[in-house]
Amino acid sequence: MELxxxxxxxxxxxxxxxxxxxxVASGVGAFGAPRGQMEKAYDQWKCSVCGNRMYQGxxxxxxxxxxxxxxxxxxxxxxxxxx
Length: 83
Ligand SMILES: [Zn+2]
Known about the structure:
mainly beta; 1 helix; binds zinc ion
């Protein structure tokens, strides 16, 4: 899939960067212990320009999570999310 310029720019940015204007929130995922408190989570976005999905880490650890594109990040173990 061809990314639009805005998605291309955002991919790999720290998750503290703001979503670009074409992104529409499309879900939330979380991971951590199966029960009990969540340790990490991400917001899922879908681009209205190019149709790309992006994942924004919502925990700002050290190092911070990033904006990722394409497949759901393999190392972000979502236990809920896609609707
Ligand atoms: Zn896009």
